[in-house]
Amino acid sequence: MTPAPLAARLGIPSGPLFFPVTAYGPDGSVDLETYRLHVRGGVEAGAAGVFACCGTGEFHALTPEEFEACVRVAVEAADGRVPVVAGAGYGTGLAVRWASLAERAGADGLLAMPPYLVRAPQTGLVRHYRELAAATSLPVIVYQRDNALFTPESVVELVRTEGIVGLKDGHGDLDHMQRIVSAVRTEAPGDFLYFNGLPTAEQTQLAYRALGITLYSSAVFCFVPEIALACHRALHTGDRATVDRLLDGFYRPFVELRDQGRGYAVSLVKAGVRLRGLDVGEVRPPLDEPAGDHVKRLAQLIERGLALIEEAK
């Protein structure tokens, strides 16, 4: 049986979206077998989709050969149970190249990162993503953040572009997102996907749900899927007491710890995976490892979060 299109498979938020870290061995090379265990474990824990080699997976640090190998392993580990979306980025030509590697590796879709470094006008941004979508058979989710911020009118143009199926928001301006959602609903209605893509998205998901945005990425799922799933269930069922308990006791302190260091949105998550027993190695430069006392605080937070979900049972 042919799998349903990506938009249909992701449209029902059955669980958090999993952005696995990329595993490295002691010599710094990609450790594909550990990566396979990490991805398979996330799928079996209840992830609704795997976003391989994206921001948390250090897309910026991977060679083309490593990228293709990791995407292929993620596809094998998912084994058709959930869709696998791969990162693609840099300039238009390189984004197209990464898309071709992801397609060859069997990915179900692409998360299109912001173009490298430049601050482009809206016309240039729209052209960039349209050319990427035209060059691949894979459906494209556009990632709004940093130097790729769109007017509502530009998002309407992207929605009307064949092959572009969603927008992941990593900017966090809720007024702006409301105007985008309204413009698309008015000018280009249809089954377009929206994602909360802020770091530690659970912290803002109550606000995004009020806009009708139920899909979100969960870095916490990488290392404590139990907590991420409990929060997802509580959000989905309207169990505000559990949501508030997890926000107050785990997510807010985690965000405060994450904000103690540059790059902690990746390196602290990777430290968390190691704390839970899977040696995925350290981050690659230019990122650096979190301070030792911060890792100790993370271990305490994990224990606290797990105790909170036990109390709720």
Automatic annotation (TrEMBL):
Pathway: Carbohydrate acid metabolism; D-glucarate degradation; 2,5-dioxopentanoate from D-glucarate: step 2/2. Its EC number is 4.2.1.41. It catalyses: 5-dehydro-4-deoxy-D-glucarate + H(+) = 2,5-dioxopentanoate + CO2 + H2O. It is an enzyme of class 4 (lyase). Pfam families: DHDPS (PF00701). Keywords: Lyase. The keyword Lyase applies. HAMAP family: KDGDH (MF_00694). This is Probable 5-dehydro-4-deoxyglucarate dehydratase. It comes from Streptomyces pratens.
